[in-house]
Predict the structure.
Amino acid sequence: MLSVVCLCFFSRYYSIRYEQVLQIEDADSREVTQLPLGSGGFTLKFQHSVHLTPVYEVYQIDSDNNMVLTETRFFSLGVGMPFTSEEGVFSNKEGEFFITGLSRKFQRIPLRVSPIPDHTVIIDEKPYSLVSFGQPGGLINITTRKKWILIEK
């Protein structure tokens, strides 16, 4: 009887789902955090070191858990910025440059985090500063996987 009451209480306030998560690990492959990917994708944002303007890389997750770069957005042309449409479609909309139609697959994204370029992951419009998951100048690895997670209703 007690187990039925506990189950009813649990199911009223919580649910369990099999969901895609963004996993962040330190250089020694120790899991630092997991962030649920509600909409199935994420954006990696950073400040370009020369132009000092934001760059956005948009990723979707495929059925093999690869992170697929589908779009890049930025605000200036020049050193270190893409400028041809060899892999996608280049466009300019009111001073913002886009390369869309990309399909670059990554199983992991190694990244040395730093507060200077403001490395940030954006999931469903919520930003997560990557420097909070690793030492400044330290290496982190970004991967994805599916996992059972507990959701508070």
The longest strand covers residues 139-152. Residues 2-152 form one domain. The helical segments are 2-13.
